[in-house]
Model the fold of this input.
Amino acid sequence: MNQWRKGIAQWKVGKTLYISVPFTWLMKDAEFIASQHKGKVLIGGSGCMKPTECEGFEPILFHNPLATFTTRGCPNGCKFCAVPKLEGDFKEIENFRPAPVICDNNILASSKKHFEKAIDLSKNFHLVDFNQGFEARKLTLWHLDQISRLKKVKIRFAFDNINNESDVYNAVKMCQDHGFKEIGIMCLIGFNDTPEEAHYRLDKILEWNCEPAPMRFQPLDCTEKDSHIHPNWTSEQLKDTMRYYFKQSWFGGFGFNTYEPNQRHEKQCNLI
Done:
C-alpha cells in the first residue's frame, strides 16, 4: 500500500502539461516545472487549494495507483482542514473506481447504500486501507458488520482534540471487540495544543494498543514545510514528538521523558 509519490505528479495530454501539487510548500517547484514547458499548463491539487483539472482520468492515479475516492468533501468544516475549501460540499461519487486504498475524507458521512456499495466493490482486495480515517462518533456496529465482509482491513481514526477522547476510545473499543486489531490513529499536534496535551493523546493511543501517527500542523498558506511553530511549542519539541511517536517499533518500551533525541537510534533500541 506504500506506493505514494512523495511530491509533485505531472503528466501530458497532447501539448497540455498537468501538474498536481499535494502540498503548498511545493508550489515553487511546480511553477518552475511549468516555466520549462512550451505549451498550456494546468496546475491544481491541495497545494494550490484547487482541484486538479484533467481529461478523463483521476489525478490520484499519479500519486498512488492503488488509491481511490468514493466520496468527496466533509461536512465538519474543521478550522485546520483544507478539505471544505478544496472539495466543497460533501458528495458521494456514483461511479467511483474501486481500489484498495480508500482516501475519502469522511466516508462515514455517506449513506448506508453508498457505504455498502464501497464494501461490495472492495471484497476481492487482499487488504483495504481506509487511509484518511473514520470519524469516530459516526462509527456504528452496522459499519463494522459491513467492514467484516472484507478480507483484511487497516482502520484509522483521528484524535485531534482532547474533547474527542471518549468518542475515539469508544470507537476503538468497538473495533477491537469486533475482532479488528490493526488500528492506526492520526493525532494533530502543534495547532492549538501544548506538548503536554499532545503527549497525553499520543500516550492514550499507545495505551489503547493502537498505532500513533502524529501529524504536525501546517497552515493552509505554508510556503516552507515545518516552518510554523505554535507559541506553545518549540521547534525541537515538535521534531522530538514526531520522531519518538512515529518510531514506536524502535522506541517502544520506555516513555517519552526517558527518550534522549541526541543519542543514536541504535543506543535507544538497546534500552528495550
